[in-house]
Amino acid sequence: MSKAYLCVGSNIGDRIGYLQQANCLLKDTQGITVIDISSIYETEPVGYKDQEWFANAVLIIETDLSPKDLLKECMRIEKQLGRNRACESRWGPRTLDLDILFYDDVIISENCLQIPHPRLHERAYALVPLLELDPDFIHPILKKTALDLHNELEEPEEVYLYGARSNF
Prior knowledge:
26% of the residues lie in helices and 25% in strands. The protein is α+β, with helices and mostly antiparallel strands. Strands 1, 2, 3, 4, 5 and 8 form a 6-stranded antiparallel β-sheet that branches.
């Protein structure tokens, strides 16, 4: 069995509901066992700022699926929950985004699949929930812990524990 870290996010409609449905669909997928789930965080959008904030979480799974098969399952779940990549802009709104952050210490650099996630070390929305689960996880390329990567963020987007963001 391999250990993988997934980041799940949504900023359209029932954001929390989409995250919960994704978790249930992952649990129902043959070859995947959800081991741990972070808290949910409200996160400022990256890139395209004029949109709703995201709800994000990180899951740790065990899987006997290959990285490519895991990606296929993640994309199947995104589509099942209403994601239509053909109608999206980069960094734009989406019902569900389900990204593979890490898969053991595997390094893959292909057009359709990059592991570790290529911008993880720049994204507080993924690093903060990852810190909750495994602050000592070592990035297989950068050879730094999740905590080190978070501490090195130059201009992190805002990240709040769900429900803790002030509306003032």
